[in-house]
Design goal:
It is a single chain. This protein is of the alpha/beta class. The protein has a single domain, classed as Aldolase class I (TIM Barrel, Alpha-Beta Barrel), CATH 3.20.20. Strands 1-2-3-4-5-6-7-8 form an 8-stranded parallel barrel, surrounded by 8 helices. The radius of gyration is 17 Å and the shape is globular. The chain starts with a strand and ends with a helix. The structure holds pyridoxine-5'-phosphate (PXP).
Length: 241
């Protein structure tokens, strides 16, 4: 059964808007778990725009499910991952001016570099995922790197301007999932997924995890975090195995 992992970066974004002490991502993580999330995700950015180092440490110390750490493939982040020891690391690209992660990681031509980067992470028993576009060449490169998981970037599908564009992006993702599965890669999906657009994946088998942040936090403003997570976890639970 696919599961929901909840990204709590946006809770930190709200706190950092005032550089204050609330809301607290670790509390949101706890509430998300009690509402049915199977895991918690944080993206520790190089610029520390939202999640801070202490958030990662606190969530790791108190998490009752699993912690996934999204990060850039830098030496600093590699040391942090080895120290914090999350259940999974997901490598993402980072640009300083971006509003959010804008595209997938480029794995093409970086197979050896990324394999070497992940080696100490794998050696420590941490699972690895690569956040990539649904591009066949990126999927082949990810397979060559030897990562257990990929997370297919669903942002272009979520942001599609009209029906035709959306169908085109969805088709790319569906073909990407098939190709990844042929290479024995486990597939997660994430970015821009919400309570409506996620339904397109309802009958797609073989998805391990849905990684969702913004839509849940946006709904939480109106209905509360507990209800917002329960609604999404309940949807994901009805999806194909
Ligand atoms: N997956 C990755 C790799 C991301 O960078 C993000 C955004 O932080 C998400 C999933 C969640 O995206 P959203 O907040 O749009 O649900």
């Amino acid at each position: 059964m696919p599961v929901l992992v909840v990204n709590v970066d946006h809770v930190a974004t709200l706190r950092q808007a005032r550089m204050g002490i609330e809301p607290e991502p670790v509390t949101a993580a706890y509430m998300a778990e009690t509402a049915g999330a199977t895991g918690i995700i944080v993206h520790l950015r190089e610029d520390r725009r939202h999640i801070q180092d202490r958030d990662v440490e606190l969530i790791k110390a108190t998490c009752n499910t699993r912690l996934h750490l999204e990060m850039a493939a830098t030496g600093e982040m590699q040391s942090i991952a080895l120290k914090v020891n999350p259940e999974m690391v997901c490598l993402v690209p980072e640009k300083r001016q971006e509003l959010t992660t804008e595209g997938g990681l480029n794995c093409i031509g970086r197979e050896q570099e990324l394999r070497e980067f992940l080696k100490p992470i794998h050696d420590q028993g941490i699972r690895a995922s690569l956040f990539i576009d649904a591009d066949p060449a990126q999927i082949e490169a990810a397979a060559a790197i030897g990562s257990e998981f990929i997370e297919i970037h669903t942002g272009h599908y979520a942001d599609a301007k009209d029906f035709r564009d959306r169908e085109k992006e969805l088709d790319k993702i569906l073909k990407g999932i098939e190709l990844a599965q042929k290479h024995d890669l486990k597939v997660n999906l994430g970015h821009g997924l919400n309570y409506r657009n996620i339904l397109a994946f309802r009958n797609v088998p073989g998805i391990s995890e849905y990684s969702i942040g913004h839509a849940i936090m946006a709904r939480a403003i109106y209905v509360g975090l507990d209800r917002a997570v329960r609604d999404m976890a309940g949807l994901v639970r009805t999806f194909a195995d």
